[in-house]
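Before any further analysis, backbone shapes were mapped to integers, which produced the following:

***
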Amino acid sequence: MTAVLLTCAVLLTAAGILALIRAERGPSMLDRTVALDIIVTVVVAAVALYASAERRTDVVPILVVLSLVGFVGSTTIARFASVEPAGEGRVRTREEIAAEEAERIRAEDEAEQRRRARRAREAENAATDAPRPATDPAEVRAEHAAHGDEARRAEVVPDEDRREHGDDPHVDEHGPGEHGPGEHGEGSDR
């Protein structure tokens, strides 16, 4: 009797180890499901072997529960794994992975170039659509008059003041005498 128990224990241990290897390697979900079902079966058989060796009948409910859990679990996984996409569980080679990575990078680069080109077109359109600022005092006054802003008087900063500060020609929309001390070489009239 001891030789039979020992042989069964060795065979169950070998089956459990091989099932663990298959569960780890896969490659598909169905392979892993079958491997896990075999592991549950090995556990049930090991508990049954223990019960027969020790002549214990109180372990029978545990065997029933383990068998039902194994059956329901493997049936549930098989139900959802049956819709696995074709080729999903296949192990890819390094070359296939590198080719897929290169394709992904190329697609991202093309998308980035399209985004940059679109932004450049939008910036170009925005630059051509933007109104040109008026620099001539008569144009500024006409623009203010067109907007009903007759109370504001625009003043062009004199050329010598512009050269002194190194500024580009610009229009001062504050009007005469509204500058703080030191601005444009004038004092405040306030």
The chain is about 65% helix and 0% strand.
